[in-house]
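Q: What would this complex look like in 3D?
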Amino acid sequence: MAIFLIIFGGIIIIPFLKVNAKGIAAFILVFINSVLSGYYAIQSLISEVISISLPGGYVFGTIPIRIDALSGWFILIINLVFLTGGFYGLFYMKAYREQRNNLSLHSIAFFLQHAAMISICMIQNSLAFLIAWEIMTLASFLVIIFEHELSITIKAGINYLVQAHVAILFMMIGFIWVASKTGSYDFQAIATYSASIPVSSSFMLFVLFFIGFAIKAGLVPFHTWLPYAHPAAPSHVSGIMSGVIIKIGIFGILRMILLIVTDITSVGYMILIISVISGLYGVMLAIVQHNLKRLLAYHSIENIGIIGIGIGIGCIGMGTGSQVMATLGFTGAMLHTLNHALFKSLLFYAVGNVYQSTHTISIEKLGGLIRKMPQTAALFLIAAIAICGIPPFNGFVSEYIIYIGLYKWLSDATMVPLLAAIFSTAGLAMVGGLALLCFTKAFGIVFLGNARSELPQSCKEAPFLQLLPMYLLVGIILLIGLFPMIFITLLSKPVSLMTGNGAPAFNPAHYEAFSSIQPISFASGLLILVAGSIYMFRKFALKHRKIETGPTWGCGYGSPSPKMQYTASSFVRTYSKLFAPFLSIGKHENEVHGIFPDEVKYHTHPYDKMEKWLIDSPLKTNKAFLGRFVFLNNGKLQFYILYGVLFILSVLSLPILYQYLKSFIDFLKQL
Amino acid sequence: MLSVILILIAAIFFTGVIIRTKSLASGRKGPGLLQPVFDVVRLFRKGVVYSETTSFVFQIAPTIYFASVIMAMLVVPFGQSRGVLSFNGDFIFFAYVLGLGKFFSIIAAMDTGSSFEGMGASREALYSMFAEPAFFILMGSLALLSGHTSFQEIFAALHIGSQISYALAALATFVLLMIAMIESSRMPIDDPKTHLELTMIHEVMILDNSGFDLGLILTAGYVKFAIYGALIVNLFIGVIPYQYAIPSFFGIQFLMAVAIGLIESFMARFRMSHNPQFVVALTSVSLLIFFGVLLILEKFI
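A: Here is my prediction, written as structure tokens for the whole assembly.
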């Protein structure tokens, strides 16, 4: 209780603090909160489930707070990302020092967001859960619209708010369904209720929750808010959004898989299919983006897809009784959740550095930053390699586990599952290849070559303290890449929670399916060693040789200019031509005409086809229909009062009408 | 361990054989079989020239490319003898570690800021992306057929018995050979001997590399070819004892090199815009293999 007082005291104090202290105060609050929740989370991962009951009064009933291993794992990820993000934000927000009130609000919302997310992981009462969820949504809305003077930011924020509330609507329907039948808000009621109804109904219940959480997670086709919200937010917030907020959706899906008793195999197939589509669609759109943050946002969709593939395999494994497959699937999914949180937040922070020094995140305008910001470039490079799932970094480990799960599925299956497995494998391989195309483009165009437009003079490396959290993230990325066993052992409790009801925690060290993890980390280490020794040898060999510099070979052309470099659009031109049916790229061009041509222009703006079909065109039809009733909105007060009166009258007359109707029907029946 | 030695020996002669075949086919005598090796050795002794535009990425990239090929070589088995590294799903490591090399060679090309090298980088990234699913489906089918998930176990358990499995092995050879052509940038995807930068893929990416770095890249290229050759050989030798297996290894590698030389002599390079279709066709061949495996295992409903 004292803790709550301290925390709320802190929130009240923030507005009165000096500008510099606001951020620090928020960071300290996040830190306190992290240490406290982290302590319990580690306890739950190591030893046992922690459960407390809070009195919720007349409205809530008792509120059970339970930190099981699943919550523990997600709480730790949330804490890690919030701590690094908060620390990075302290320096990132320095540029906005004069917006005092705005900063207070931002700091408070930032902390509230953290607190709400931690509570979401713990609370097991649907009413309290929804309230915490709503606090998280509103707080993230506030942190997204920090630069609210830009209309595009406000638009993105409102888009987010609307879609987040659509998600809440679906969850609410699910919770109300259960509560109205059982009269209890406790999550356990969901489990008992879903066990008592036919499978088709409980599957519907799962689908309701799944849609709600999938909107948050950004699975296709519920992803459209994500590419707007991420670029609009300040970079540390984008890092957190992509690192953990969308992961809360994954947490929700996992929680519901634990709770709802239904046909788990169909659930698995549903998640698997949606996830493979998400993975492919996300990366396919990411490649054609020219806004660096949007590109990363679409990559989040892709990675959520990869996590989803893991979850799908896990569920199918459970459904078919293959413990190994289930374990592999869930381990891969949860490890990838951590991995994605690490490298994606790192990427966003690196982009934040780029934005701060160049004031643009349009890929086409950048270039050659590696010479001005070598550390940021190196950090971005490591994260880019990690996100492509390439050894020796962490992305490879989790993708590898998912692959092994898929191949395990192949080994004992019949026709239809086999087809699903082989197409998922091909999809995952394709996603890997496309990610490589995407990140060579992003890194190559932004950091390498020559600048493609005039960059500001002040363009320089970020201060060391701002880079510090990024180095920390790189450290963990490398740690997972080289010693994955540590993290898989940590995961043994949450995974066994998912795979079996009360089964003893598996020990990955003695688990046959994980026997290949150790050789992988050995191979990754050896890779670093081989590369290092070759590099040393090369350095030694070149010591006494002539090393010259000269211009880039221009194929006989004497005066190349930076304008002649390959651009991002040209790098992916063949790709976008081939994938044209899936993409929708608007083009404006002024081609060369005549002997004295005008200025030549070529402008493209990629758009989301899914968004066009699923959101824009229904909205348009809806608007056209409702437009017919515009005459009602005539601006005269008396009319509005009249509408109100009419409405009240019609509501009041409903029961009377019903009575009449009923007696009329009774009368008919008597005849 | 045996595989590493064999691959290295094959790598020394491989390109020489290709060049010799091409020379003979065009009515010339051609250089000695070891000429490519001499060229590389000479490169290793030279100094380097760096472009002013480049950064440290350009300098470490050839090293990492070379290291990735070495690591890929270490997981390749030879018949009954394991690779140096052998574990469940090592072929995933194989594909992804080659991906690391590719990543670096692509960004190194972009580091020079040359429009031509960007062009090559773009094509390389695209084609390797298309080749990836083919490889994974092929390995998945073989894993399904043999019930194992590591290179060595898969190859050891492949029994070439029925006629369908002969067909499968032939198809698998075709897929691996084509992937090798794409990865090592050979005809009909790429023409390494072309003199127009606009039409090159791999060669245009290394225009600015010189001396030691170029030596590393060329060596890695030779080794890469021999690695794929070794994979193809592995499809057939299975349980054959070494005294027959080793000669047949060199025999098949030699045949492969001659075949490539002949293809390059008598076939024109594809139009650049037709390449993706060709590469995607590989995936469908892999799928054919998959259905063949289903047929053998009688898993069709």
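A: To summarize the key features: The first helix of chain A runs from residue 2 to 13. The first strand of chain A starts at residue 50 and ends at 55.
Q: Very helpful, thank you.
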